[in-house]
Design brief:
- This protein has helices at residues 7-28, 35-42, 46-52, 56-81, 85-101, 105-113, 115-141, 150-165, 168-173, 177-192.
- It has one domain (57-192): Tetracycline Repressor, domain 2.
- The protein has ten helices and no strands.
- The longest helix is centred in the middle third of the chain and has 27 residues, at 115-141.
- It is mainly α.
- The radius of gyration is 19 Å and the shape is elongated.
- InterPro entries: Homeodomain-like_sf, HTH-type_TetR-like_transc_reg, HTH_TetR, Tet_transcr_reg_TetR-rel_C_sf.
Length: 194
């Protein structure tokens, strides 16, 4: 008779594997890895990986989603600590920069080249733009920001976010991602302040 499985252990183990996968992918990218290589690096079997996803592509997508969920939690925690709408936008954009600061150029290149992961990234950018719009609307409603077209300001921020995340801003200006997000926060909040 086998011992009953501990669902909490299974959940913790699954989360641990995604965290280890994410750390590996953020540092090295993912395109060059095979499932055998991933299993070897994580010191688990391929069958264990198949409990996470049915294929390497699905594993990459699931890990990418894990990255964005974790980043969203960190970003929203930073926003929760801010008092004013201006501070919230600054905290939001700086926290996004911090979250992406751990992503290597190899990861960002692989992310851009792999459609399922790129789609998760694009969805996250749309969500981020909507969140920036909410923060702008909050500032307009409280009189801290002038009455701006919030959708346009959020779209402008989202466009800059995509350029930062794709490395275009770094190539054009030399600013790293965190610095670029700080500059975006400063420009955006100064441009809409009452």
């Amino acid at each position: 008779m086998s011992a009953p499985t501990d669902p909490d252990f299974a959940t913790r183990r699954r989360s641990q594997l995604f965290d280890e996968l994410l750390a590996m992918f953020l540092e090295e990218g993912f395109a060059h890895f095979t499932l055998d290589a991933i299993a070897g690096r994580l010191r688990c079997s391929k069958s264990t990986l198949y409990t996470l996803a049915a294929s390497k592509g699905e594993l990459v997508r699931a890990t990418t989603i894990h990255f964005f969920r974790r980043a969203t939690d960190d970003v929203e925690a930073a926003v929760a600590e801010a008092a004013s709408p201006r501070e919230k936008i600054t905290a939001y954009l700086e926290a996004v920069g911090d979250a992406l600061g751990g992503a290597s150029p190899a990861f960002m290149t692989d992310l851009a080249a792999f459609a399922p992961a790129r789609e998760a990234y694009e969805q996250n950018t749309r969500i981020a733009a909507a969140r920036v719009r909410e923060l702008i609307d909050e500032g307009v409603a409280t009189g801290q920001f002038r009455d701006v077209h919030a959708a346009f300001a959020a779209d402008l921020a989202a466009t800059a976010m995509v350029r930062i995340q794709q490395g275009d801003v770094r190539a054009a200006t030399g600013l790293d991602d965190a610095g670029a997000y700080r500059e975006l926060a400063a420009l955006l909040t100064a441009g809409i302040s009452a």
